[in-house]
Each structure stands twice: as structure tokens, then as C-alpha cells.
Amino acid sequence: MSDLFKPSRRAFLRGGAAVAAGSVAGAANAAGPDPLITELQDWESYLGAGVDETPYGLPIRFEQDVVRRNVEWLTASPISSINFTPIHALEGTITPQGCAFERHHSGAIELAKDDFRLMINGLVDKPLVFSYEDIERFPRENHVYFCECAANTGMEWAGAQLNGVQFTHGMIHNMEYTGVPLRTLLAEAGADMSLDKWVYVEGADASSNGRSIPMEKALDDVLVAFKANGEALRMEHGYPVRLVVPGWEGNMWVKWIRRIEVVDRAVESREETSKYTDVYEDGTARKWTWVMDAKSVITSPSPQMPIKHGAGPLVISGLAWSGHGQITRVDVSRNGGITWETARLGKQGDTKALTRFYLDVDWDGAPMLLQARAMDETGYVQPTKDQLREQRGENAVYHNNCIQTWYVNAEGVAENVEVS
Ligand SMILES: Nc1nc2c(c(=O)[nH]1)N[C@H]1C(S)=C(S)[C@@H](COP(=O)(O)O)O[C@H]1N2
Ligand SMILES: [Mo]
């Protein structure tokens, strides 16, 4: 059966290639016969893998470079550390869980659904403990949101540092979450929902990663989520249940949640005082910097994604996002911010989610200083690195949303640089 089909399919492919040969066709139309077209191939001669061999699929081995990576010198131990999403190699907007960055303060824990308990206590009429099955019985919603660690791009404040968008901007992922609005569970417990109240949310891991969230946000769009991209959360993303705090810094997205206490003021835990706070030049701190401001970056070309095809049609591709809502426009500069062209959005951006943008150009083969600049629905425009340093000083670690520059040379090799 399959033998009968193959010759005709090959004939079709050959015809298709001829029709498609336009100005972008390169290697496939090089002079001389192409053995991939003219000769019988190995994979046409053997029987492929059966449907019983891969109960849960992993990427094909040719894609083995599209993986999370960490930077060893960044942290003292891989248990309290971070790795980075390979955003240079991904397209569209959804991050597969298997390569979405991880950030743990005391490692990823293995917590079975049967062992899961979520307590809601404090300023409530009836303190409640929910099992996993209980959570699944409340009306649920689906939303796509980005989660960005406040430290994303944090190594770049003092100058261009890490040569790869995976490392400069890869503390971000974007998934479709399924969960129950936090307000539903608070109502069930008869919580005091006055807007001067807060919720303090803890995880079941050793670090607990406790964070205080003002009631207004808790009642707005926060989800108690149990699925991501259609399947159960992976262990490293908080299985079986995590908090999703749209647009707000990743640290507030408490994983493996075990307790939500309704309190009358912020707890001021370690995670929201000594950490995740930006210190100005004069030593004072920027307090409660929850929302992730609009940001964008070109993912290709970039240091890990050089241009290999030479001059001619070139797809410049990147990501933009804003914790304040929708991305309304992204501009791209090819000359370090002197002139700008408005990019095409892959599709109209979702609120507080990654938006893909493209600039399709005819590259003349000359060196470029590539930049992207995002704008969101509030009218905010992503700042330059110098503008941000002027505002925040040089002590800052978190919330670096400045414009990134890649220098692309005539060979198409890209490098992390700064322009001023
Ligand atoms: N319980 C718990 N929740 C946690 C953390 C943690 O260490 N423990 N890390 C936080 C930080 S700093 C970030 S950036 C996000 C990262 O989520 P991810 O590991 O799914 O990428 O989870 C947050 N939630
Ligand atoms: Mo984080």
C-alpha cells in the first residue's frame, strides 16, 4: 500500500517545488541535480515507528538544542536558581511547558493530587480546606497569560552581558491556563473582600514563597490554575495547582499553593522586601513594583539565530508583552533607533499575553543595529536603556524592560550590544 503511494507523492512534491521556486529559493535550486529530489531516500525504504512506540511524544532528536539552559555562575546552587526559555527558537506565542523557564527557591517538589490541600483562612466567615477534586468542581475559565520573572534582563543593567536572547529575555513563558477565579474561592469562604484587605498566598515547598496581593487584584483576574496548554501543570510549574497573577511579576505566581490567608495589611515577607524590590542610587526602595511594564525583543535574528541565507528576503521576528494590557504597536529599527518601521502583529494581541510581531524586509546585506520598541493600550512606550538607567540608577536588578539592541554584521552574525 505505502509503496504504491510513494512514487506519486514524490512526483507531487517535485512539481510543488518547481512552482514554489521564487526569489527566496536558495539551496534547493543550486546548480546540479539535488540527490534529495532525484534519489530514493533511506526513510522511503523502511517502515516508520508504530503508534505503540511513543505514548507521550518528545521533540524529534533534530530539535534537541531547543531546550532550557541555565547560566552556572548566576546562582550558588541549581536548587535555588533559574533556567531560561529558548525563545530564540520558538514561534507564535505559546510556550510548550517542556521548555518553559523554571524558577525555584527550594527546588521543584513532587506533590500528588491526593496530597493537595488548599486552606483559605484569616478574615473569612468559614475557613475552608479544598482538595484537588473540590477545585475542579467550581466554574472554570481559560486565559492565555505571560509569566515574566522580575529579574528577566536583570543582568543587562550595567552593560551588554549575555550573548543570546534566551539568556537576556528567556525568564518568560506564555501559556493557556485553565483555572478557577480566585474571587470564586474567596466568596465560598465568605472572605472580607473590602478593597483595603490583602491575601497572603503560600506554596507547599520549603521556601513557601509567600506573597501579599492587594484585594483589588485578587478579585480581578487572578486564577487558581490546574492546567496549562491543555494538560496538567508540569511538576516544575506547580503541579497540581498554582496561582496565575496576570501581568504581575513571576514571583507572585505562587506554585504548589497550600494556603491563602485574608489579612488586613501586607505581610511584608522576605520575597516582597529584601527580594523583588528595586533599590535606587540613594538607597531608597521602589516599593510594590508588581506590574511588568511593556517590553519587546527581537528573537530572530539574534545571537543564537544568525542569518544564514545572505542578502534578500529576511523575516525579522520577535515578541512583545505588557502587564498593563494589550500590545497595540511594535516598531522595529534597523539602525539603532534612528528610524523606525511599524511591525506587523502575528495576530491582535491578547491582554497580558505575548504578542508575536514581524518585519518582513529585503536585507541589503549591510550590517544592522536591530531594535524593537513596544507600545501598549495605556499609551506607554518601551524606554531606551539610558532612559531607564536615568530613572532607576545603577543598583537596580529587577524590572529591566529597556529596548534591546542586536548588532548584525554582513555575515549575518548577531551580537548583544548597547547604543547610546
Ligand atoms: N512555591 C513557589 N512558588 C514560586 C516560586 C518558588 O520558588 N516557590 N518561584 C517564583 C518565581 S520567582 C517565579 S519567576 C515563578 C516562575 O514560575 P515557573 O517556574 O513556572 O517558570 O514562580 C514563582 N512561584
Ligand atoms: Mo522570579
UniProtKB/TrEMBL annotation:
Residues 286-404 form the Moybdenum cofactor oxidoreductase dimerisation domain. One of its GO terms (molecular function) is molybdopterin cofactor binding. Pfam families: Mo-co_dimer (PF03404), Oxidored_molyb (PF00174). Keywords: Metal-binding, Molybdenum, Oxidoreductase, Signal. Residues 1-30 form the signal peptide. Residues 111-268 form the Oxidoreductase molybdopterin-binding domain. Coiled coil: none annotated. Its cofactor is Mo-molybdopterin. One of its GO terms (biological process) is sulfur compound metabolic process. This is TMAO/DMSO reductase. It comes from Thalassobacter stenotrophicus.
